[in-house]
Write a structure and sequence with these properties.
Length: 421
Amino acid sequence: MNFQNSLDFAKKMDLYDPLKNFRQKFYLPSQNGKSQIYFCGNSLGLQPKSTQAHIEQELKDWQTLGVEGHFHGKNPWYYYHHFVEEASARLVGAKKDEVVIMNSLTVNLHLMMISFYRPTPQRYKILIESPAFPSDQYAVASQAQIYGYDPKEAIVEAVPRVGEETLRTEDILAQIEELGDELALVMFGGVNYYTGQFFELEKISQAAHKVGAKVGFDLAHAAGNVLLNLHDWEVDFAVWCSYKYLNSGPGGTSGAFVHEKHGNNPNIPRLAGWWGNDEKTRFQMPKQFVPQAGAAGWQISNAQVFPMAAYKASLEIFEEAGIENLRKKGDLLTGYLEFLINDLNQSEKQGNFNIITPHDPNQRGCQLSILTGENGKTLFDKLTQVGVVADWREPNVIRVAPVPLYNTFEDVWQFAHILQS
């Protein structure tokens, strides 16, 4: 694509955008009577206009049916996780029995690690990326402590080379091989929250399994953003939230993936609860836990119907748009943003905006992380004052995420124009 730094070019791109009408399916926040330039879908996605009706349906069934809503509502609550499993599976490249929607993100990470981090005196180390999202760091550290290991010894960080901001795949694979039979688990973010780097998950999975380790991914910044194929990549487990690119609202419900080679093993260690018991016998109240086959066997408590209703509303939009189509537009939007920032850096004003997200579209999603100078926070605050919603990550990065469902090429051009002024 031969991009041009002009408003006319941006408007033309929007005119011929096959996904342009999806913007109308979302509420756009405003400031001083004008729509904001909302580039924060990597932190909290916008509200679909259909969300209210989905939640009101469940409120209506509760109002009119009471407890009978579990079996006689429009969407019976007893089976609610089934209503979102097929669309969720398509988003992460899984079989429908390999996914379940439940709980919140770090809770699901802990549940997965109970099953897949089973350290021994020889094999006890966990490899994570640096910088990993703090909640992931806290989770893996506490899991190591449960087994009596010092996190400083049990947790190994994959660190970029000196002078570089992102990790090289060959360095990650070499570190996995070096750890060898000491390595119990590789637990990476699918897309790093700080740099926006999309890791080569298939290669990481293969390397981990080659040395006898398990592999899991936190897909908080990947689900609904990049193309995933968890089943074919033979990932052991994955977790994700639904309130970022998946637009299910603050604190929205989470997803979990368990590969069928584990999901069909009823003897795998897990924390059990009655909602994970076989649906056919759950209400017979058996003393012996018999897990459902697949990821659903990791459920503990009743489905979170209202948050899942919001998630269901967003999934319907993804089903209509198609994740492959969204990824194509996302590549163009992000590429245009990168082009404009690079053009700004080369202009007479000599911008000082260092993009630390990989240039290769295969190694990123919608997010560009811009490394700013010492006045970066002041710049970020000025952007906020004029109606740009991005987010700031310490010590000096502005994260900008043009989301293909509701952002436009004009949004991107306007942002760069404001950045220059």
